[in-house]
């Protein structure tokens, strides 16, 4: 792998290494893990925030992905705060644990996917608790949230998360994978930081991440970008962040 200027992003033993991947590849690896765990048993899958929208041009159809991988034997439930396409049950994932259990019915889940939802919840720590409760021991969770993204009220927009923030929310989970991805349609690239082949959550990794995903423009470049916008933009900063999502794959420890 090389950087934008062509310099190799290799690392010696003990150094941080930037590893290129894609969201598609990471999801395939995750579904491999789920398949290996459930064996011949029909998997139970829960999608939190399943309602489809015309704005979701780059969103994956998880119901179709699960059906393609496991066939009709998979049991898939899509829940959302509001009724709509792809919603099986209305549910506030931040609700009291007892109410959430009653809404989901009997049985735990092998896999819970929650993408681009937590930033819209009033109490993401309650959502994380209920996701953990919904998983059977050894079950997997895939969480994706924005680190930087334009304000989007659906129905409102409250939070932004770092990978370390998600790790705190899902404290007690075994973290199997974490990576950064973008939001552009047709561009499926992702990156993670590793040290000696292992995920790295230390402060030094955070400093590298800061340099990778932030762009500071000089005054003239800043003015030129603002001048090309269709509507007025007010110049309050020369620092720009692209749309950037953080992704976490965790496993509830087996009992």
Structure overview:
With 255 residues, the chain is an alpha/beta fold. It has a single domain (20-197, 241-251), classed as Rossmann fold (3-Layer(aba) Sandwich). The chain is 27% helix and 27% strand. The strands form 2 sheets. Strands 1, 2, 3, 4, 5, 6, 7, 8, 9 and 12 form a 10-stranded mixed beta sheet that branches. Strand 8 and strand 9 (198-199) form a beta hairpin. The chain is globular and about 60 Å long. The relative contact order is 0.17. Residues 1-8 have low confidence and may be disordered.
Task: List strands and helices in order, with pairings.
Blueprint: E1 16-21, H1 23-38, E2 44-48, H2 62-70, E3 75-80, E4 89-90, H3 97-104, E5 109-115, H4 124-134, E6 135-148, H5 163-169, E7 174-181, E8 190-195, E9 198-199, H6 203-212, E10 215-216, H7 219-227, E11 239-240, E12 244-251
Parallel strand pairs: 2-3, 2-5, 3-4, 5-6
Antiparallel strand pairs: 1-8, 6-12, 7-8, 7-12, 8-9, 10-11
What is the CATH superfamily?
A: Vaccinia Virus protein VP39
Total beta strand runs: 12
Q: Estimate the global geometry from the Cα principal axes.
A: globular
Helix-strand string: EHEHEEHEHEHEEEHEHEE
User: How far is it from the N-terminal to the C-terminal residue, by CA?
Assistant: 39 Å
What's the structural domain tally? 1
- CATH class, named Alpha Beta
What's the main sheet like?
10 strands, mixed
Q: What structural class do the secondary elements suggest? A: alpha/beta
Mean pLDDT, nearest integer?
A: 88
- The value of Rg in angstroms is 20 Å
Low-confidence stretches: 1-8
